[in-house]
Each structure stands twice: as C-alpha cells, then as structure tokens.
Amino acid sequence: MAVNLPSQAARGRRAPMAEINVTPLVDVMLVLLIIFMVTAPLMTAGVPVNLPDSRAKPLANPAKPVRIAIDARGTVFVDEVEVSDATLPDALAQLVAKSGAEPPQVYLRADRELPYAKVVAVMGELSRAGLTKVALVTVAQGQ
Asked: b or e along 25-63 (b: 16 or more beta carbons within 10 Å of the residue's beta carbon)?
C-alpha cells in the first residue's frame, strides 16, 4: 500500500490560484460608465438652441467639423464665438483659408422658432464662402 503524503516544503504553502477575480474590474468599469453617462451630455452643450425634430439618420463623425449655431434671437456663433452678420463672410473666408484643399464639414444648428429667412441667409453665406458640406443638426423625434 502506497500513501502519497505532502512533503514538508509544500505543507505551509498554498497552491497557486488559476482564476482571475473580475469583481474589482467590474466595479471600476461601472463607476466609469456612470461618470461618462453623467458628463457626456454636459460636453455637447454649447450655445443653447431649441432644435427641431427629424427622423433622419445620424451622420458619421468627420474630423473636426465647423459648428455654426443661430440662437432664438438670430445671433450667429461660429465654433461658439459670436459673429455679427457683417463679419460672418470674413469669418467663413478665414475658415476656408485655414482648411487647405478640402473645405471642412459644417454643422448648422438653428433654433426652431427662428425665421426661415435667417437660416437661408446664413446658408447662402456658407455657400458663397465655398462651404458646401452643410449638415443641419436636429433632435431625434420624441426626445
């Protein structure tokens, strides 16, 4: 009869653990998820604009689009910097000059209570400056 007894050297040691404890990893990931869920809406707010509803699909995000906003008073903002109607063509010309060969994508946000003529006037200035890739930003229907 043979008996397999543990040796003296291995008696006080534990066997190496072959499993990974994922509970702390899950805890950290849930905390990060909550942080991103809270801070993400705060990062997108620039100029407060009451956007109209639309059923269109979202666009793919290009590299650094130009954001133009028109608030309810008709004030125009280019990348969150207020621009008067008289200086808008110069500001747009500077954007085209900085962009190089291909003009940048433009995201145009306009308040839903704004007269249509104001939006068309800004879009006309965009076209005149050579910024023809214009996306009108809306809110998904039901939000």
From this structure: eeeeeeeeeeeeeeeeeeeeeebebebeeeeeeeeeeee
Contact 66, 97 (CB under 8 A): no
Q: Which DSSP string do the residues of 107-138 spell out, in sequence order?
A: EEEE-TTS-HHHHHHHHHHHHHHT---EEE--
Backbone angles phi, psi at 90, to 5 degrees: -65, -40
H or E element, residue 83: strand 81-83
Which residue in the block uniquely carries the two structure tokens 């793919």?
A: 60
| Amino acid in the structure at residue 44 | T
Residues 35-51: tens digit of each pLDDT: 888 887 766 556 666 76
Q: Measuring CA to CA, how many Å separate 91 from each of 38, 47, 48, 49, 106?
A: 34, 18, 21, 21, 13
Q: What is the pTM of this model?
A: 0.55
* pLDDT tens-place string over residues 107-135: 888 888 888 888 889 889 888 888 888 88
